[in-house]
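Lecture 7 notes: from sequence to structure.

We start with a single chain of 327 residues. Read the sequence below before looking at the structure.
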Amino acid sequence: MVRRSYAVATSILLFGSLSVDALIDGTYTVEAGDHYASPKSCRFFGLICTGPSWGSNSESKWFTKVTFPDAAADYEGGSCFDNDSVEYYDWNKLIGKARCNGGHQNDSDRFVWRRLQDIHSAPNCGDNTSDCRGIQIATYSYDGGRTPYPQENWELSRTFVTTLLPETPYILGMESFSDGQVVHYLYTENWELLETQTNQHSNLCPSDYDQGSVLGLYFGGTCTAPQDISVTYEAVEEPEITTSTLATSTSSTTSSETSTTSTTLPQTTTSITTSSQASSTTSSQASSTVATTSETSSTSTAASTSEASTTSSVSFLFVCSFIKVCI
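Now the structure, written as tokens:
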């Protein structure tokens, strides 16, 4: 299978920098004893090798589906994990991008991850105290050279409460704003929103806050991977809700269609349900009008009386509304 990221990496090596709205597709592996994912990008006749080059991205909002292997929840041993050391809590890098058209160690935003564990003190099992197995994710930003650690700039790192399970696809998204905020989204693969976390930059760079190189899989921190760990990426697009789509949904007379739309796009459930209720109310009113008309055509005397009564009621309500007092 030819991956788009391979093509982007090759183009960068052959032709220099390449500005495209790139995203990561395919499966990438950090081999035991290494930090960088393969296939590597090498320079100076192979003397210096780093991770793949995934191109650049200038989109203010983008999404990627990721799936962790079992090894991401079970790794141990290696260069750090045999010892009760602080490096055990290092965050590994998952996906993100630089900002301000600069280097990622100066300005960037990323999702980071590490396994749950109760081997060393203190454990980070969260609510999974029964088996303490899963994957913890967080946000991690560089801001004008500032980092979350060790300066404790916690506006640059937020830990998600939701625990990810291995061999389960999740959708991760980022949305950047000119005021320095970056919202990180966590969805199920069916676009059910699980959680959001927001980082705040002080370096605003308003003209290119959403432009930078794409960042992918990297193990560490300090420690190298104790075993081979692969992560599968798939670029996805957020489902769109347009005015015409909403109009079609709310005018539909089939409740099951409305239900299907709500399930597919959970973020719009409230508005669609409200519109559906309004549509149902209108339909009921229309039915009531038809029934009244039918009764009127049956008995002319009753119709006249009803019409007079209706006119009187409308006039009374109008006067009440005008003077704001009804007795």
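The first strand starts at residue 26 and ends at 30. Keep this in mind for problem set 3.
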